[in-house]
Design the sequence.
């Protein structure tokens, strides 16, 4: 009777599409590879353009005008929506409009419906973790690779008996009418770009890693320290276009890195004490309203250097020595930075190409490409197959939301009458 | 105060803009038609090549500026520059260029064009002469050293006649033979 | 037994017969038959490419065509020769028009180039054709983990699409002898050999920076696989002493010398006495087993 929609990936785009389809009365199955939803947005700390914590931003969006945390939101309350975490796609067959999808459901060690996040298990074993206080579903996670003697005791002492250490993986087959690919992106790990020393020099990190350091809920509690020795950070240098706009890596502009970097530069200069920030760039691309981040950064005293990096190496002070060619001054500058932050390209996620292949979609630089490149219908990627968010290529949060809504609109239109 | 130098004109108070009509708009085409110039138009002036170069800090024209000058048509300045001959040809600029411009190979092409016009440093001209006369850059002199190491005193298979004949007919012959 | 066309070039036999001898002896032990190519001369060096592109194409196409006749790969111990042959091969492989022009000239001496021949550095052939496992089997006196910095050489590594060579090849070859490969910041930097004719001061400075970077990373020895790089890093240490008053005292060895010694050959067999900065301290690092 019903014609469910399968959504692959519970990040910004996938959750938006799922909630809005469910709200429109459509049966929705939202599949997520990880144990908690939110995707990369979880790690952004403050997401532009509103600088909100991502959870509130999402919760707020669903019920306009009401600020309430995401864990009380539609993913739990909406009866048309089935969320399957720790689940991947094994096989897709059938015809457009009637797909048969085999799901690999990972072992459900913790029953999210029972877990009250009391923390008893965390005291007994390192294998248990709370990803974030706002994690969704609201439950602890269990990592069997870290299993220790305490795990068994944790299971026994769990007050709600939510833990099953013997859980096995299973398979489930669903029939769906439409598929939405919302598989997101991955931040490139620039280990192969020799001149930046990433992966070799501990004080060289990426923007996403910096966001996690800045997050007050993160491991460091929002305090910036050098990964090499834990000394406080006094100077930060960022470099733009790492792996983006580069025919050796990714030819496209990753679109969000300029604002991402500027946002971090502003947070560091304005909200932390005595830390200077320099940004090495070749073009600053703050299109549309994002220009304000650039203006704010200059006003805050962020140092902008138009040029490229010659060499990065550990410095005698324990930081990193960076030599930059300043193309406006036509001189080489030597810096001693505590943190060297790479604005690394957004690339297609791991496993993305398998889904593209299974659904017979077109591909562009690893991302999902529109079915008809001439058409303006970017989100239509196949017959009864749609894509939204960064599965289509680099996008900011509002753009992902807009695309998700476009998909919802297309599906609703196709079912009218 | 006391200016005794002969003045040949009014003092230079402002530098005139480069007169674009005096430049050679075909220079970029000329480079594109060289063996490695295909991608020269792709340059987006990021200056990565200059950041990569280990010796450009002592150059008047940095690698990205040389490419810029090619695109503008500053043929004379580029082909007369010392920079094109000092290039180490270490290919670091080319390796790091994000737009696939074969920067080092283009510098080789620039040397080739300069050579056609006879603009060759004396030291390089000397090497051309050596190649033409000896058929190699280095000639075995200490053959006893070779024998001590159980090597043939003469390099087996070495034959320079045909090499010399070829270069006599090509540009090397003109460069080195003309003096 | 794999057989190769050995293109020796002019610099190795004239300046570094120790490198030549060590290469031949190591190859023999590894079961590689190296046959000196007949009727070949110089590659012209990058200088010939600069002043006479077509002449440079011709002389190297000729070498390639001679090698192609017997079907064996061409191997060379010199990065300069390697680059010239690889570059010309790559250009002619992708440019039919120039290949035709070149072949019209080659026809006069009864040669034709089809671009089927493969060119490799001689140590690359050891790596791919003999392999690390077999090389290790022949090592009787492995090094004791002594720290050695590798200078790969620009024209061996770049441009990558032409040379098809990765630095890991040398890393693994050196590690096979028991040495520790030293990582140092300026590992990619040029030795300065190419600029020697037009700006000697600059060349000396580059060698200085390179050696300093190795020393700062606590390298005890340096390794090269090219006579020009070897000259610049080894002999130039005397020029550096004169210009900068700095004595690095960093012995520079050719890879086949290190490998030969680890295979149990004597210092005389590899001409260790010819290395300009005395290299005999390496002898203390070979274990007896």
Sequence:
């Amino acid at each position: 009777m019903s014609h469910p929609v399968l959504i692959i990936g519970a990040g910004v785009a996938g959750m938006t599409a799922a909630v809005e389809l469910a709200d429109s009365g459509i049966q929705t199955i939202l599949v997520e590879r990880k144990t908690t939803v939110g995707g990369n947005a979880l790690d952004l700390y403050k997401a532009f353009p509103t600088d909100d914590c991502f959870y509130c931003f999402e919760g707020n969006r669903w019920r306009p005008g009401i600020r309430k945390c995401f864990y009380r939101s539609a993913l739990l309350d909406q009866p048309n929506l089935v969320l399957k975490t720790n689940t991947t796609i094994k096989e897709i067959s059938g015809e457009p409009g009637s797909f048969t999808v085999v799901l690999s459901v990972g072992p459900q060690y913790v029953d999210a419906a029972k877990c009250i996040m009391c923390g008893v298990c965390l005291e007994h074993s390192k294998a248990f973790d709370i990803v974030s206080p706002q994690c969704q579903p609201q439950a602890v996670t269990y990592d069997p690779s870290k299993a220790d003697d305490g795990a068994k005791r944790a299971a026994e002492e769990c007050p709600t008996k939510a833990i099953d250490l013997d859980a096995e993986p299973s398979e489930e087959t669903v029939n769906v009418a439409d598929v939405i690919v919302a598989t997101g992106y991955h931040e490139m790990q620039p280990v192969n770009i020799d001149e930046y020393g990433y992966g070799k020099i501990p004080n060289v990190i990426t923007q996403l890693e910096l966001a996690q350091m800045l997050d007050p809920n993160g491991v460091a509690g929002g305090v910036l320290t050098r990964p090499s020795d834990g000394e406080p950070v006094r100077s930060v240098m960022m470099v733009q276009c790492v792996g983006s706009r580069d025919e050796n890596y990714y030819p496209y502009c990753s679109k969000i890195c300029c604002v991402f970097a500027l946002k971090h530069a502003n947070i560091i200069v304005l909200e932390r004490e005595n830390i200077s920030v320099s940004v090495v760039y070749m073009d600053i691309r703050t299109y549309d309203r994002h220009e304000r981040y650039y203006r704010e950064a200059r006003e805050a005293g962020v140092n902008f250097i138009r040029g490229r990096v010659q060499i990065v190496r550990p410095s005698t002070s324990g930081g990193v020595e960076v030599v930059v060619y300043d193309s406006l001054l036509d001189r080489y500058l030597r810096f001693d930075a505590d943190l060297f932050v790479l604005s690394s390209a957004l690339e297609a996620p791991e496993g993305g190409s398998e889904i593209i292949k299974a659904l017979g979609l077109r591909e562009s630089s690893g991302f999902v490409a529109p079915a008809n490149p001439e058409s303006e219908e970017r989100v239509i990627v196949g017959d009864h197959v749609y894509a939204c968010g960064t599965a289509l290529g680099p996008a900011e949060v509002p753009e992902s939301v807009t695309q998700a809504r476009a998909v919802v609109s297309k599906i609703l239109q196709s079912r009218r009458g | 105060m006391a200016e005794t130098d002969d003045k040949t004109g009014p003092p230079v108070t402002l530098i005139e803009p480069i007169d674009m009509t005096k430049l050679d708009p075909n220079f970029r085409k000329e480079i594109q038609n060289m063996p490695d110039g295909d991608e020269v138009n792709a340059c987006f002036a990021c200056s990565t090549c200059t950041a990569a170069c280990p010796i450009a800090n002592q150059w008047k024209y940095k690698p990205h500026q040389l490419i810029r000058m090619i695109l503008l048509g500053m043929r004379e300045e580029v082909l007369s520059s010392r920079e094109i001959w000092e290039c180490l040809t270490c290919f670091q600029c080319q390796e790091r260029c994000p737009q696939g411009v074969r920067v080092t190979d283009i510098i080789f092409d620039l040397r080739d064009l300069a050579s056609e016009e006879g603009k060759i440093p004396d030291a390089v001209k000397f090497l051309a002469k050596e190649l033409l006369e000896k058929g190699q850059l280095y000639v075995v002199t200490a053959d006893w050293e070779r024998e001590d190491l159980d090597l043939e005193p003469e390099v087996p298979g070495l034959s320079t006649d045909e090499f010399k004949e070829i270069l006599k007919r090509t540009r090397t012959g003109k460069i080195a033979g003309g003096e | 037994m794999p057989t190769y066309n050995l293109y020796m070039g002019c610099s190795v036999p004239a300046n570094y017969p120790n490198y030549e001898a060590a290469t031949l002896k190591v190859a023999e032990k590894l079961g590689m038959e190296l046959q000196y190519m007949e009727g070949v001369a110089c590659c012209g060096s990058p200088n010939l490419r600069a002043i006479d592109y077509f002449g440079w194409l011709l002389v190297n196409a000729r070498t390639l065509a001679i090698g192609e006749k017997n079907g064996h790969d061409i191997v060379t111990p010199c990065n300069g020769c390697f680059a010239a042959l690889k570059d010309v091969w790559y250009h002619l492989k992708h440019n039919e028009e120039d290949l035709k022009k070149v072949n019209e000239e080659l026809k006069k001496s009864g040669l034709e180039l089809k671009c089927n021949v493969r060119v490799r550095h001689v140590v690359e052939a050891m790596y791919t054709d003999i392999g690390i496992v077999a090389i290790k089997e022949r090592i009787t006196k492995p090094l004791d983990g002594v720290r050695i910095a590798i200078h790969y050489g620009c024209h061996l590594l770049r441009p990558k699409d032409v040379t098809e060579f990765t630095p890991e090849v040398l890393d693994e070859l050196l590690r096979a002898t028991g040495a520790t490969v030293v990582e140092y910041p300026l590992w990619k930097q040029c030795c300065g050999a190419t600029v020697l004719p037009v700006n000697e001061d600059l060349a000396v400075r580059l060698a200085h920076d390179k050696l300093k970077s190795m020393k700062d990373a606590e390298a005890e020895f340096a390794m090269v696989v090219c006579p020009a790089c070897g000259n610049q890093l080894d002999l130039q240490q005397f020029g550096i002493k004169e210009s900068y008053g700095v004595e690095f005292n960093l012995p520079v060895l050719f890879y086949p010398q290190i490998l030969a010694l680890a295979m149990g050959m004597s210092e005389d067999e590899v001409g260790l006495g010819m290395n300009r900065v005395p290299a005999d301290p390496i002898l203390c690092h070979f274990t007896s087993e």
In short: The CA atoms of residues 46 and 52 of chain A lie 5 Å apart. Chain A has ten helices and 24 strands. The two ends of chain A are 15 Å apart (CA to CA).
